[in-house]
Amino acid sequence: MDMDSILKRAQQFQFEMSKKQEELAGKTITSTVGGGMVTATVNGKFEVISLHIEKEAIDPNDPAMLQDLLMAAINDAMKQVKEMTQGEIAKLTGGMGFNLPGMFGG
User: Fold this and answer.
1) How deeply is 84 buried, as exposed, middle or buried, from its count of CB atoms within 10 A (0-12, 13-18, 19+)?
2) pTM metric for this prediction
């Protein structure tokens, strides 16, 4: 393979990766914990875009319970987004196992 075709392939890969990033940024994952008491929605850019807390989850005598529920919902949604992005990137790279730190939450 000559240098010209390597550069063309690299540019095509960069273009496809850019498209995939845009596509994933528009996707969302929602996680609900505590029997529906707390729901967190995270987008493909790893931003929390929505939190819903049922009134029953707010106990002034037990703030630690609400903190735990919030962390569980957010962490679960983040984990699912990471898995989704890794799966999509694996499709793009043909499963070559690229680890791209900082990209897609990696």
Assistant:
1) middle
2) 0.77
